[in-house]
Amino acid sequence: MLQHLSITNYVIIENLELDFSNGFSVITGETGAGKSILLGALGLILGERADTSALSNKEGKCIIEGIFQINKKQYQHYFLNNDLDFESDTIIRREINSKGKSRAFINDTPVGLNVLKELGTQLVDIHSQHETLALKNNSFQLKVLDAYACVDLSNYQKLYSEFVEAKVNLEDAVELSSKKSTDFDYILFQAKEINELSLKENEKEDIEEKLKLINNSESIKTVLNYASENLSGTENSALRTLKNIVFKLSSIESFSEDYSVLHQRLNELSIELEDITSEVESKNEDFSFDPENLMYLNERVNKIYAIEQKHNLNSTQEILDFLAGLNSSLEKVENNEELIVELKGVLKQKETVLILASKEVTKKRKASVAKMEKEVINNLKDLGMPDTSFKIEVQPLASPSESGCDKVDFLFSANKGFGVQEISKAASGGELSRLMLVVKMFLAKASKVSTIIFDEIDTGVSGDIADKMAKIMSEMAHNTQVVAITHLPQVAALGAKHYRIVKNAKKGKAKTEVTLLKENERIQELAKMLSGKTLTDAAIKNAEALLLTSH
Fold first, then answer.
1. What's the DSSP call for residue 198?
2. Rounded to 5 degrees, what are φ and ψ at 201?
3. Residue 532 has pLDDT above 80, yes or no
4. Of 42, 69, 198, 209, which residue is the least packed, with the fewest Cβ within 10 Å?
5. What is the DSSP letter of 343?
6. Which carries the bigger pLDDT value, residue 23 or residue 217?
């Protein structure tokens, strides 16, 4: 349930703080006062996209925050999946800076727009005026029937995904088969060219290391000669000098612990230096330069470079991985005919399982048709349409879809003696509004959404019908928080809370403000809705009577 809405610097709303309660609330105001702006702000914390045009003050930040009372059992899966802290009073905040950059938070944890939208669709259902047109759409009609029939498509959709994957795999194999000869020869040529190299693991890198040594052989030999000579090759070499020092210290080590330690350390150093000297001499003796080997290595590495450049690769391992991919492709091409037969069998099996699952879905849909038809007709009769005919046709599709194997058509007639037709041909605006209200009742029960907002769903109706639509919304509010934006006094009078939205000019700039009306203010507002700007005693008395009979 939406408890509080705070809006700062959004379009013509400078600062707004609104508290909401459960039950049925109404919002009234003149056209252009900012009702759509209010819904736009709410839409932002429910995951809608935004831009800098949302900012009233382009130098400031737009902040919209909503506090929602939510049920832990119903939403704990969502919070766990998204690693969010659960709070029974969950705070959703959206910020938009002057550059249009948007950030979203749930209980002060930053979240992506997709995560925000996932929660928003579960919390609030905003029925906009244009949404009534969705009634003419077969996909929406199918969604309504499924909601009424409590159809769970999760298992079917999992099977459908597997069916689509099997279908794509078969199509890919068939396409590969059609290009078999050309592709096969080209892939074979590439693989043969690389195979002829007989590459070893890290071979390029090893050759580059060897070439580095060979190309610097003169410098290396000079340094090794110098090191060998100065370590042990002369009378005053480092090793002989160090050994002499060790010998001298051995004669005084018994005089002091300090001398003993020095003797021991230098002796260890002498042993280490002797080992190093031996290694330097060995490397100096073994170092050689083979011109023929240099030629071979250069030819070898140039061939490897050519393969890398040709296929945009950078290492021996990448070449070997590329070759493995080519071999895998060759294997697929060579075994493609067998693969196609196998994939056809997999697709047939997936389709068989899918069709069985779809029959269960169809069965459940058809089992609810008569009951739903009856409920729709009865509700429409209560809404002043006594001669309504309403039929639901469930027809098979030529092939499975993500929603099953059915096409659903809502057929409608508002007049006695006329056959039912598609809704788009048979229903007027007012009739569509009433039908949509009935549909919303079904959807609200199925989705368990905590808040429903109706944006002038009563468009095209008046008088007694408006009163009856208001009563339906009021009854819906026994289980769900309902907010109705309306121009009709009959609807406004039935709200437990009544908010008025107005647009005023302050310092030459339009500002939208929303106020929770007290009883005497409600009477004034209803009187204006009944008679216009000029208030009459009769209008006030009518407003008082309307408010009295509505509560």
1. -
2. -60, 130
3. no
4. 198
5. H
6. 23
The whole-angstrom distance between residue 219's C-alpha and the CA centroid of its chain comes to: 61
Q: Which residues sit opposite 127 in a β-bridge? A: 454
How many residues in total does the chain contain? 551
Strands (E), 112-218: 124-127
CA distance 213 to 227: 18
Q: Is a pLDDT exceeding 80 seen at residue 64?
A: yes
Of 102-106, 196-200, 315-319, 446-450, which range is least confident? 446-450
* φ and ψ of 490, to 5 deg: -60, -40
Tokens of 151: 């159809």
* Mean pLDDT of the 450-476 span: 84
184 to each of 193, 311, 534, how far by Cα in Å?
14, 17, 86
Beta bridge partners of 482: 24, 452
Read off the pLDDT of residues 7-33 as tens digits, 9 standing for 90 and up: 998 888 888 899 998 899 999 988 777
SS3 content of the chain, % helix, strand, coil (to 5): 60, 20, 20
| Cα(312)–Cα(318) distance, integer angstroms | 10
Query: Residue 70: left (phi > 0), alpha (psi -120 to 50), or beta?
Result: beta
Residue 390, pLDDT score: 92
Tokens of 533: 């700007």
411-426 pLDDT, tens per residue?
998 888 788 888 878 7
Q: Strand pairing of 509-516 and 13-19?
A: unpaired
Count Cβ neighbours within 10 Å for each residue of 34-73 and write b for 16 or more, e otherwise: bbbbbbbbbbbbbbbebeeebbbeeeeebebbbbbbbeee
Q: Judge whether 33 and 502 are in contact, CB under 8 Å.
A: yes
**Residues 533-538, mean pLDDT to the nearest whole number:** 80
pTM above 0.70, yes or no: no
Residue 391 gets which letter from DSSP?
E
- Residue 329 CA to residue 133 CA, distance in Å, equals 51
Q: With CA atoms as reference, report the closest residue to 62 among 53, 72, 73.
A: 53
Residue 194, number of CB atoms within 10 A of its CB:
19
Which residues have C-beta within 8 Å of that of residue 161, sequence separation ≥ 6? none
Distance, CA of 294 to chain centre:
58
Enter the DSSP assignment of 230.
Answer: I
Q: Give the separation between CA 218 and CA 372, rounded to whole angstroms.
A: 95
Cβ-proximal residues to 377 (8 Å cutoff; 6+ apart), any chain: 388, 389, 390
Tell me which of 32-41, 399-408, 426-435, 509-518 is least confident: 426-435
pLDDT bracket for residue 179 (50, 70, 90): low
Pairing of strands 451-455, 481-485: parallel
Q: Are 374 and 148 in contact (CB under 8 A)?
A: no
SS3 state at 494: helix
The crossing angle, in degrees rounded to 10, of helices 429-447 and 138-149 is 40
Sheet containing strand 13-19, edge to edge, reads 13-19, 2-10, 62-69, 89-96, 102-106, 109-111
